[in-house]
Amino acid sequence: MSKLVKTMITSLVVLLVIAIASLVVVLNVAGENESGDAQSIDDIANYSYESPEVTTDLEDGVFVRIQFQIVTDGKSALKEVEKRDFQLKNIIIKELATKTEEDFKSGLSELEEVIKTRLNELMEEGQITEVYTINKILQ
Questions:
Q1: One domain for residues 20 and 48
Q2: H helices present in the chain, as ranges
Q3: Owning domain of residue 88
Q4: Looking at residue 59, what DSSP letter applies?
Q5: The whole model's pTM is what?
Q6: How many angstroms separate the CA atoms of 22 and 30, rounded?
Q7: CA–CA separation, 48 vs 132, rounded Å?
Q8: What CA–CA distances, in Å, run from 99 to 37, 96, 137?
Q9: Residues 66-120: pLDDT tens digits?
Q10: Are residues 127 and 120 in contact, defined by beta-carbon separation less than 8 angstroms?
């Protein structure tokens, strides 16, 4: 083969490899943007579990009554959370026992995050995507 044909073939192969690599990168970036979308309100309603109302005392002797809405990522996770109801109550009681009235008033987001993290450690199917406080009374 002549030198010109070898150069053309090499150039075409290099261009083909660059095109394939670019296509893979573009498809992966587009796929990440689509999967990062938030759950629709219908999904949140369908895959959420309303915890029972828990009444317990805080570290400083103040009583609190609290209830959470636990949002999961699917039906199997929802069913598992319903089965783990007793573990959810245990996590809530243990976490509240270390809080004072002031901690409780200012650190509700931290409590929600701790509950989410601790439940996700227990989950075998699916995961908890969000925890919302839906009822709170300090006495």
A1: no
A2: 3-35, 41-46, 75-83, 85-97, 101-106, 108-122
A3: 41-138
A4: T
A5: 0.68
A6: 12
A7: 10
A8: 34, 5, 14
A9: 999 999 998 999 999 999 999 999 998 998 888 888 887 777 888 899 999 999 9
A10: yes
